Amino acid sequence: MSFTIVEPVTSRLNRSELAVPCSRVELFEKAAKGAADVIFLDLEDAVAPDDKERARKNCIQALNDVDWRGKTISLRVNGLDTHWMYRDVVDVLEGAPGKLDLIMIPKAGTAADIYAVDMLVTQIEAATKVTKRIGFEMIIETALGMQNVDAIAGASKRNESLHFGVADYAASTKAKTVNIGGPHPQYGVLTDKDADGKRDYFWGDVWHYALSRMVVAARAHGLRPIDGPFGDFSDADGFRAQANRAAVLGCEGKWAIHPSQIGLANEVFGPSAAEVANAKRILDAMLAAQREGKGAVALDGKLIDNASIKQAQVLLNMAQRLGMAV
Ligand code: COA
Ligand code: MG
């Protein structure tokens, strides 16, 4: 281990994070009754410019009146380059003191962006005498934000998670996209001809580098990496495939832009009964090895070591949190 110890941030379930535009008041109760781990109340891009003020009022009322059933509640404020953002923070924090858990900062570009919001939130918390400390989640969705992702991740003690905002990221980098967060038919590898002259074409994962880069920056600062939206909410298999890729790279969850995606995200990012059983077998095998004074040991013909123990322990902790039999 390095002498620099990375402390993990406040631990929360973040398998699914549902987007709820504050312009649609009928969605609040439905979101609260659903199975999303985190709900983000959106004042940014899902709300039309003429509707911003009304949406902010809706948001304050919903934070005060709706029974959110213990869910983690985040507020996506407008960008720092707009004239709405300061009132989003001031009005909501003063109008619904102590109700929010997180603020989501869109299009985070530099560490100074986070510093600015931190300053504002710190003053409001002191003035309103609210002791619950709000955490930050940052969307990495511009070329500038990706370039500065490491500094952004380390910019505030309030930071909890980084989110890959694939749609704006594609716009910012001028990437070609067909469906938000999905693959692209032109991003593939054409194999050389085989003996019969036949060639294969394999679709590649166009988001691999960006997501990996964000995952590394998040984990190096103890933050949760979260994958962003998948636009085609009628394509459950497409969502599951993208969520699986994100989970394999280390993400802890994914956005749901429609209720149909919540269960899929919870399933992909929550441990299955088989994974729980396997984690228990790993721990048992390692305990037996330790009793015999061995460091590394084989299970089912494969090496398991200290890293396997850590992974198994993380999985079992989550299973316990979800009330699964462990
Ligand atoms: N939160 C809670 N409930 C939602 C919801 C959401 N985000 N989106 C849809 N629902 C509800 C609908 O009200 C409907 O409820 P009902 O069965 O009681 O009538 C049900 O889920 C099915 O919704 P559906 O009719 O298929 O969708 P829609 O046409 O009402 O809305 C979207 C589709 C995409 C416009 C909507 O889901 C949405 O606004 N999602 C968030 C998008 C967003 O915020 N994007 C920004 C981040 S990328
Ligand atoms: Mg965006």
From TrEMBL:
Occurrences of domain HpcH/HpaI aldolase/citrate lyase (ranges): 18-259
A Pfam entry, by short name: HpcH_HpaI
Keywords: Lyase, Magnesium, Metal-binding
Domain of life: Bacteria
One BP annotation, GO: oxaloacetate metabolic process
Positions that bind substrate: R76, E141
Residues that hold Mg(2+) according to the record: E141, D168
Cofactor(s), names only, from the UniProt record: Mg(2+)
Family per record: Belongs to the HpcH/HpaI aldolase family.
The protein's name: CoA ester lyase
